[in-house]
Design a protein that fits this description.
The structure is a single chain. This protein has 210 residues and is an alpha+beta fold. 44% of the residues lie in helices and 31% in strands. The chain contains 6 helices and 10 strands; from the N terminus they run βββααββαββαβαββα. It has a 5-stranded antiparallel beta sheet, with helices on both faces. A hairpin with a 5-residue loop joins β1 and β2. α5 packs antiparallel against α6. The longest helix has 27 residues. It is elongated. The C terminus is likely disordered.
C-alpha cells in the first residue's frame, strides 16, 4: 500500500534500492545513517526533500514521495552516495495504482517475471464475478441508503440487484453486484463506509428532540 507523510499526503511514488554483495546489509545501514545523519555532506542532504520518507528492510532501501520530481531528487542523492561508497545496487521506481491496489514498476520498464506478474494481477482484477453483500439499515433512512449504493454501483459500471429482508427496527439489504473484481472491491469499500455513516445518522435521528 502507498505510504503517508507526516502531513497526511499520500506518498504514491516509490524508489527501491537493492544493495548487491555479501556486505549489502551493513552498507545499507551506513547509507541510511548518512542520508539523514549529521555526517552527510550539506549539498547532498539539501537534495533529499524533507517530505521524502526513507525506510529499509535489511538489504533494501525504500524512498517514498508524493510526486515524481521529489523522488527523482532523492534518487540523485542516493545514487551519488552509492557511487562515492563504491556500492553496487539495483534501483527501481514504482507508482501506486489505486485501481489495482498494487505498485506498478515504471523505471526500468517491467520485463520478464515482473511484467508477467503485473499482467496476471491486471487480468485477475478485470475478472468478471458476481458477489452478494449484506448490510443492515434503519427503517428511517433505508431508502436513502439503498439509492446511494445503487448510484455508486452505476458509477462503477456494475450490475446491482437489491433484495430486502425487513425486521422490526432495521432491514437487512442484500446487494448482488456483477462486474470486474476490482470494481466490486471498490463497491465493498463504499458499502462499509456508507453503512457506518447511516448508522450514525440513524442514531442522530432517533435521539433528536421532537
Amino acid at each position: 500500500m502507498s505510504q503517508a507523510s507526516a502531513d497526511g499526503s499520500e506518498q504514491d511514488w516509490r524508489l527501491e534500492v537493492e544493495l548487491a554483495g555479501p556486505d549489502g546489509a551493513s552498507a545499507l545501514h551506513g547509507l541510511v545513517a548518512r542520508l539523514r545523519g549529521r555526517g552527510v555532506a550539506k549539498e547532498i542532504e539539501d537534495r533529499v526533500p524533507s517530505d521524502v520518507v526513507i525506510t529499509h528492510d535489511g538489504r533494501r532501501l525504500f524512498a517514498y514521495a508524493s510526486d515524481e520530481r521529489a523522488l527523482s531528487a532523492a534518487r540523485s542523492a542516493i545514487e551519488q552516495l552509492l557511487r562515492s561508497d563504491g556500492v553496487q545496487a539495483r534501483v527501481r521506481v514504482s507508482h501506486w495504482d489505486d485501481e489495482l491496489d498494487v505498485w506498478r514498476q515504471t523505471d526500468p520498464p517491467p520485463a520478464g517475471e515482473v511484467r508477467r506478474a503485473e499482467d496476471a494481477v491486471e487480468r485477475d482484477a478485470e475478472t468478471v464475478e458476481t458477489r452478494t453483500l449484506v448490510a443492515s439499515a434503519g427503517k428511517l433512512i433505508r431508502s436513502e441508503f439503498e439509492q446511494t449504493m445503487r448510484d455508486w454501483a452505476q458509477r462503477l459500471g456494475l450490475q446491482c440487484q437489491i433484495v430486502e429482508h425487513p425486521h422490526l427496527l432495521t432491514t437487512q439489504v442484500a446487494f448482488t453486484v456483477t462486474g470486474p473484481r476490482r470494481k466490486i472491491d471498490e463497491f465493498v469499500q463504499g458499502l462499509r463506509a456508507e453503512g457506518l455513516a447511516t448508522m450514525r445518522t440513524e442514531t442522530a435521528v432517533m435521539l433528536s428532540p421532537l
